[in-house]
C-alpha cells in the first residue's frame, strides 16, 4: 500500500529525557494522504528513543499509537 501526497505533522513535542548518549521524546502526530484513490486522515501519539552512535543520533525505537483503530477517509 503506497500513500501518495502524504503530509505528516508533529505537534506537542516534549523531550522526556536528554542525556549525552540517549534521548526520548513524545508527541502527537497527524497525517493525510491518498490511498487507493481516496483521501485518508489519521492521528495519534508517538514516542521515539534516540541513541548517539559514532554516526550521530539514530532512532532505535519508535512507538506509534493511533487515536482510532484504522485510517479514515476524509469527509
From TrEMBL:
SUPFAM superfamilies listed in its UniProt record = NTF2-like
Q: What residues form the membrane-spanning segments?
A: none
Quote any Pfam family the record assigns: SnoaL_3
Location of the SnoaL-like domain: 17-64
InterPro entries assigned: NTF2-like_dom_sf, SnoaL-like
Query: What's this protein's name?
Result: Nuclear transport factor 2 family protein
Organism (species): Arthrobacter ramosus
What lineage does UniProt assign to this protein's organism?
Bacteria, Bacillati, Actinomycetota, Actinomycetes, Micrococcales
Amino acid at each position: 500500500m503506497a500513500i501518495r501526497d502524504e503530509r505528516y505533522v508533529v505537534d506537542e513535542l516534549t523531550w522526556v529525557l536528554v542525556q549525552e548518549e540517549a534521548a526520548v521524546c513524545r508527541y502527537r502526530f497527524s497525517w493525510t494522504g491518498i490511498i487507493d484513490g481516496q483521501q485518508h486522515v489519521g492521528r495519534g501519539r508517538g514516542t521515539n528513543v534516540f541513541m548517539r552512535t559514532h554516526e550521530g543520533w539514530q532512532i532505535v525505537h519508535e512507538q506509534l499509537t493511533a487515536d482510532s483503530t484504522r485510517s479514515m477517509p476524509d469527509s
